[in-house]
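Shipment paperwork, digital attachment
Item: protein structure file
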Amino acid sequence: MGFRTDFQDRPPEVFFTVDVEPDCPPYLHGWRGVTEGLPQLLDLLAGEKVPATFFVTGQTAERFPNIVRQLVAAGHELGCHGYSHGRFGAMDRIQAELELAKASSALRRFSPTTAFRAPNLDLPDAFLPLLVEAGFGVDSSEGSHRLDHRVRRLARTRRETTGLLRLPASTTSSVLRLPPGLRDPWLARLG
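Attachment content:
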């Protein structure tokens, strides 16, 4: 993994992000992460004065509007995580447009929403223009830990003209759920 060294006198920037969705879809079907974990996380972030971006699904916003209001009132950025947490890679263009429209409508009732992260980091490059059309300026749908995403980034470096700021996610909760014998050496390599 490479690190940027062109910061001059600036410290590196870190973005703390959280996906707000049903518990571990498609394996679990509860909301304990939203109802029990998220309030604790918000208290921790407030105590440390750490701002975050919360990528919330439209369905979550509709089901828990008070929690979304609390995120926004605390000064955190509200990002879009799709409407239903469906995989964009399994959708056709019309389905993806509808998913984005429904999510945007649900979330923008609370706050301007210009950042997007696809569920499961699964967003085909062909759908990038749909994000721009839906009013998103930032996409965080790639994982820096995923080889297939690294290859895609290298392949499009010179031809990308979408106008989106692409900020890859570094470590996801999927990585954290690996058995310790696999997870710990991998995390240690990240430094």
